[in-house]
Design brief:
The complex is a heterodimer.
Chain A (H helix, E strand, L loop, with lengths): L2 E3 H11 L4 E4 L6 H7 L5 E4 L3 H15 L3 E5 L3 H15 L4 E7 L15 H4 L6 E4 L6 H13 L6 E6 H5 L1 E3 L19 H12 L4 E5 L1 H6 L2 H11 L3 E3 L14 E4 L6 H9 L2 E5 L5 H4 L10 E6 L13 E4 L2 H11 L6 H13 L11 H11 L5 E4 L3 H9 L8 E2 L10 H11 L5 E6 L10 H6 L5 E6 L4 H10 L14 H7 L3 E5 L5 H10 L4 E6 L22
Parallel strand pairs in A: 2-3, 2-4, 4-5, 5-7, 6-7, 9-10, 9-12, 10-11, 12-13, 13-14, 15-16, 15-17, 17-18, 18-20, 19-20
Antiparallel strand pairs in A: 1-8
Chain B lengths: L1 E10 L4 H11 L4 E8 L5 E10 L1 H13 L3 E6 L5 E12 L5 H10 L3 E5 L3 E8 L1 H11 L4 E6 L3 E4 L23
Antiparallel strand pairs in B: 1-3, 1-4, 2-3, 5-7, 5-8, 5-9, 6-7
Classes of the chains: A alpha/beta, B alpha+beta.
Chain lengths: 552, 179
Amino acid sequence: MKKISGGEILVRSLKKEGVEVIFGYPGGAVLPIYDALHDAEIRHILMRHEQAAAHAADGYARATGRPGVCMATSGPGATNLVTGIATAFMDSSPVVAITGQVPTAMIGRDSFQEADITGITLPITKHNYLVKDVRELARTVREAFYIATTGRPGPVLIDIPRDVSGGKAAYTDPGPVDLPGYKPVLDPDDAAVLAAAQLIAGARRPVIYAGGGVVISGAHEELRQLAELIMSPVTTTLMGIGGFPGNHPLSLGMLGMHGTRYANYAVCECDVLIAIGARFDDRVTGKVESFAPEAKIVHIDIDKAEFAKNVRVDVAVRGDVRRVLKRLLAVLKGAAHPAWLEKVDTWKKEYPLEFGENGLKPQFIIRELDRVTQGKARITTEVGQNQMWAAQFFTFTRPRSFISSGGLGTMGFGFPAALGVQVACPDETVFDIAGDGSIQMNIQELATAVSNDLPVNVAIMDNGFLGMVRQWQELFYKRRYSHTELYGPDFVKVAEAYGAEGIRVTEPVGVSAALEQAIASPKPVFIDFIIEREENVMPMVPPGESIDKMLG
Amino acid sequence: MVRHTLAVLVENNPGVLARVAGLFGRRGFNIESLAVGQTENPAVSRMTIVVEGDQRVLEQVVKQLRKLVEVLKVQDVTKEEHVDRELVLIKVNAEPAKRAEIIQIVEIFRAHIVDIGRKNLIVEVTGDEGKVNALENALKPFGIRELVRTGKVAMLRGAKEITASEGNSQEERSFPFER
């Protein structure tokens, strides 16, 4: 059989996995791979920073549910991927990262651009590989994609020394994967389903607490059916946004530190809490001892290690969320809790999400974005106030339409992730809701956007502060604004310098016109919204407090 | 704080020890001893890990271990009927005048003398923790120059086995937790 290079084997293997696009950045140790990519039928998006390549692959993965692929050279290229890989790991996103490595004979000699990237990424990958033999390459790629996309998804890294990608071997299809130590369990145990059903059937004040697992497993429809069948209000985590329609009468919006008052009150008073594909993060539970104090807890998750990790549960059901919900729907009967729902509705009326009228308010901008796009845009966010306002004030009705770094909280995620989303969804309107701090962390990707005709829009909530940190300083550090006042460039001119479009908005009257102009433009657009400088994200649970003790 | 002995079957690949040991470190677990070697199947290695720590955290570590792709099986043998042994070499001061006394102690413990120097002896002992500690204490008055332990290895008694063939399925059932 004809021998081909490791680079060519890699490209063939990627095509077999259905890969259409790679977000990458070349360098010395990946030259054989880039040589093979030169005339391959795989699109390569040349980013301007490896970190952005990882975030773009992640954004692509989150928008589609398909694995996102990023690539970098050895040493600094590989270490620049690390933040992106950790981001994907915390939010269970199927990213496959391919790195070059120095030739096998040079490993361990502190060679030029050598870094032990499999060692470095050990705690932030689902699994990783150092390929030492070109004949192992095809099988490794098959396994990597299998591991990244099955069970609880997560990033997998493949480190390929230059003599392996430059070596030669015949390509043979590696066949199906058989990993004795990795057998994801998708179907739930019958007894566990019945025990869960029994608890749910006895509920008088149920609340469903839905997380990112609902979106990942594609269980949004089953979740809606379950909520309507048992007439239970639904609150979602940040990662669960879009997993349940935000405009549904049973929707409570987000819970936790910046959740709605009514969601937090409902959780505190419920008698059965049904946690679905969620992991009881500290930003959700607040003070663990007083989280859902009166409730029996049903926990549905594909990852057994999540059960009883932070909160004791009464019934744990292990399996793919969608399959578990289908089974529950088959055994549960309809229920009604008019008094409970009435109470919840009273809270909703009494404590709506609000904001003041004076000046240019970020909440108003996001409501306008929702209105102008009829809720149909794909939204990515950075991290901080911009992220929380986006989660609170845009009404998400579809899964995979809200893409945000939840677990790791990575500033600089939103813009490159938006590029990945735009690549995956070329006909859709994509907005990155940003802050003036976060956008400066990956602003160089304007060049990627312009040169690849990716017309993403960035709505910068520009307050001249690292707003969320400033908010904490205001509330808990006596307004001592230590190093949070931020000088930024003229974002309009920056956008124009890169060949993109820039718009500045200083008054509420200009908001909708600017949004419409951005959506209509074939270019990437930065909109610099000069917002009220000291606007806060409210309500807010002070750190370490019980979630019903909210400020604002 | 409870002490646990874990039997961990892993694929015999480079780097797998780092993956397993790293998990303990990240969760703040100090590994008291770790013994590793090939099993009857050369593709599979078996680790015996002794750790001490909070029960809830240990449960989490075991679950995280099971998620590692190269880990085939994890079992906490502490609660089961099992045999555990470790081998210890002790270099002890032994002036000619003291030798008879030392040899007597060694015989009582059914240990062995495996090397004789001009001023010292090397004693080899195999046994459970109690026996090893007792011998160590008995030899202390003579002056212990050096001591090395293999770390504990453990095996279930009777017909019960810990093998890779059944995978993790045995422990993988969902079960309810008491609140």
